[in-house]
Amino acid sequence: MVENMGRLEASPSSNQHQIVLILDFGSQYTQLIARRLRELGVYCEIVAHDISADDVLAREPIGLIFSGGPQGVYEDRAPQPDSRIYGLGVPILGVCYGMQLAAKQFGGKVEGSDTREYGRAAIRCQQTGVLFDGLDQSQTVWMSHGDRVTNPPDGFVVTASSAEVPIAAMEDRSRGVFCIQFHPEVSHTDYGKEILRNFLSQGCRAEPDWSMTSYRNEAIDRIRAQVGDRRVLCAVSGGVDSTVVAVLLERALGDQVVAVFVDNGVLRKEEATTVLESLQGELGLNVAAVDARQRFLEQLEGIQDPEEKRRIIGRVFIEVFQEQAKKEEGLQFLAQGTLYPDVIESAPVKGPSAVIKTHHNVGGLPEELGFELVEPLRWLFKDEVRQLGRELGIPEEYIGRHPFPGPGLAVRILGEVTAERVALLQNADAVFLEELRSAGYYDKVSQAFAVLLPVKSVGVMGDGRTYENVVALRAVSTEDFMTADWSHLPYELLGHAANRIVNEVPGINRVVYDITSKPPGTIEWE
Ligand code: XMP
Questions:
Q1: Which residues is 449 bridged to in the sheet?
Q2: How many CB atoms lie under 10 A from the CB of residue 124?
């Protein structure tokens, strides 16, 4: 389980703001709880379920949330909190499994059920309950549980019930323990945000004091304090994260920042030129460009296996980057766009909430490079990075850019990567993105691109037979890129893009559209 996560270092923000700690018992929604609280202006961090009561006290939280979890509280290896936490006098919100833990702790009864209740449920609540204060009595909530509380502990009053679950919420104000069987963090729960707000304002006496403006100012102060008058190296790709990091560093340190952009030969069409122009021009960054196209393509010669391509691109990137770093005097720091989900998921022992995502190293550079790391996005979720970008005045066209994988077009060219195949794909991809933009669909989908398949098919053009390459178009809609729906683009748009690709890109005579969701597919084809 997440044993070591309690030992994750605390954010410096936690000294300056009221903080709520979320104990992670393994729910896939734990991160969502954190995002919701921050949206409500209260800073929070996720910690391991077994954080000690002493560690909790040391953080001086105004409240604790026990997350849901996949197990039953009476199972052998069911994760338990340090029971002394209940006696600290810090208000607790128990969600689902968290509610069952509290029920068990205080002498209530929790029972299993053969059927798992999953999905929307109608509840009736008592407006006298702290959590439901001021809310409609009839509400729709999102349930996802097997076990349920069948007898509340002494001192608890039942504050909501549904047809299936007579004790859908309960609370004991004198102990400061509030419990709900359903998930307030999920958007399908009508008043989820209000319920969390009630817990914060009435249960914890929170005074919301956290915003992206405060994060920006504190991040700038922290960077200055860490780096002093020394110099920082920063890899930029034109993607949202690295752009936000670079601009933040520039605001904090000015010309002590050395930004490096590496053209690895598998970027989108004209990306190297346009990204560089805008980073240097519009955003005013001091960026050194390295043209390493030849070097990458030589190393990729003859390679078919996707993971091998990833390894080669990662290795060559580090070599190029290291060589560039040597050219600069007195660099001691390396800036990275590590995000909060990466921090949580790379905790030494992963919890069940983390293993759902077995993810890629998103352009990370190894610590063996010998630099001290500056990671100003370490406590932010992806959408918060976008917000920070807006705070920094970065234009919307950067903020709204689709993600682009570190190994670039190499994992969108199935089979061997050659200069000719890169050019084919770049041209087809550019047409697709152009069509998406002009039809107003670029911002409506989360990620869109073309993929060059390793097959040829027969066609007819003019009077002649052709035997050329096939391109697949892919567009997906997703909130977190862990699951995704294929985008239902209009037929006219697809037809137009396909027509243009076949006519304008010699070497491609067939276009198909990928209608696989994730899961079972992945977003990329490799
Ligand atoms: P998949 O294909 O795993 O992609 O569904 C999920 C998201 O991750 C991106 N992706 C990568 N990003 N290095 C990266 O930096 C990689 O090797 C990599 N592979 C996939 C993908 O574009 C999508 O946004």
A1: 474
A2: 14
